[in-house]
Amino acid sequence: MTATVSFPIDSPLGPRTATVAYERKGAGEPLLLLHGIGHHLQAWHPVSDVLAAEYDVIAVDLPGFGASEPLPPGVPYDLATVATALGALCAALGVERPHLAGNSLGGLLALEMGRLGTARSVTALSPAGFWSEAERVYVFTALLALRAGARALPRQALERLARTTAGRAALTGAIYARPGRRAPEAVVAETLALRGATGFRGTLAAGGSVRFDHDLPGLPVTIAWGSRDRLLPPRQGVRAKRTVPGARLVRLRGCGHVPMNDDPALVARVVRETARAAGHGGA
User: In this predicted structure, what is the pLDDT of residue 280?
Assistant: First the structure.
């Protein structure tokens, strides 16, 4: 069940208040799950119950996405501000240094929180921020096209498309290698989430110059890439490994950009392995 929490954040404009939606289940060490741009916390539903058998799982709608409120007026959606806000969210929920697992934008945020010292371990699934300029332009163009399509499609037509395998492929084939596996109601919900994402434009505007170029020594880090990622090509994982040489680089065979739906068992295993490494000599 989704809940909301309001908490103070630091911003370039001074102290402000953010309100974020989240789901929490399970028990054990805390594990924070972060979705990608235009998506929502339900992206993690294929794996969250499995992870909750071992961890206190907190799946979050990022500010300006899903059921979370947008950041206060004038507060930027830049990496530093949002990562700091997520740290404040953890404090509001009584969580200290959670394990982090993030996809795409969420993977970049997880790495940044690791850099800030607020993570026990980091699993980054096709994280943003390791692109060339040409690759960045390509993915931003693709994201804007996906958003435009979501906003132009009438609700009735969306629901009709989602009921067919071909329709689900048309709607979500850019992010899933196996879009037919996604439930029709889930496809409708995530398309509506993309349509209504108040933080979408601000996030893209802030992300134009983002490159992650920090090592994370002493922190258990896994960078995992879907072999069939159509938005961020798997070669970006090689760059990520060069940037974070101590990270484990994992190929998610047969998976697309959002691998949690394509192979839930594989993704859950990768997350668990990274988190367990924190108890065997990790930070």
Answer: 55
What does DSSP say about strands 248-252 and 16-25: parallel, antiparallel, or unpaired? Answer: unpaired
Q: What is the pLDDT of residues 63-80, one digit of tens each?
A: 999 999 999 999 999 999
Nearest to 244, CA basis, from 210, 226, 227, 219: 219
| CB within 8 Å of 89: residues ≥ 6 apart | 5, 7, 18, 20, 22, 60
pLDDT above 70 for 282 = no
Task: List the structure tokens of 257.
Answer: 């950009």
Asked if residue 119 lies in contact with residue 216, where contact means CB atoms within 8 angstroms, the answer is no
Q: Single out the residue of 70, 37, 63, 38 nearest to residue 192, CA to CA.
A: 38
Q: Tell me which residue has tokens 């993977």.
A: 107
Tell me the Ramachandran region of residue 14: left when phi exceeds 0, alpha when psi lies from -120 to 50, beta otherwise: left
pLDDT at 221 over 80: yes
Taking CA atoms, 16 is separated from 8, 81, 209, 235, in Å, by: 6, 11, 25, 39
Residue 210 has pLDDT above 70, yes or no: yes
Residue type, 113: M
Strand partners, 68: none
The pLDDT of residue 283 is 37
- Whats the size of the chain, residue-wise? 283
DSSP 8-state class, residue 127: -
Give me 240's structure tokens: 């990520």
Structure tokens at 87: 């740290």
User: Residue 51 pLDDT > 70, yes or no?
Assistant: yes
The H or E element that residue 71 is part of is none
Q: What is the mean pLDDT of the chain?
A: 96
Spatial separation of the C-alpha atoms in residues 130 and 107, rounded to whole Å: 11
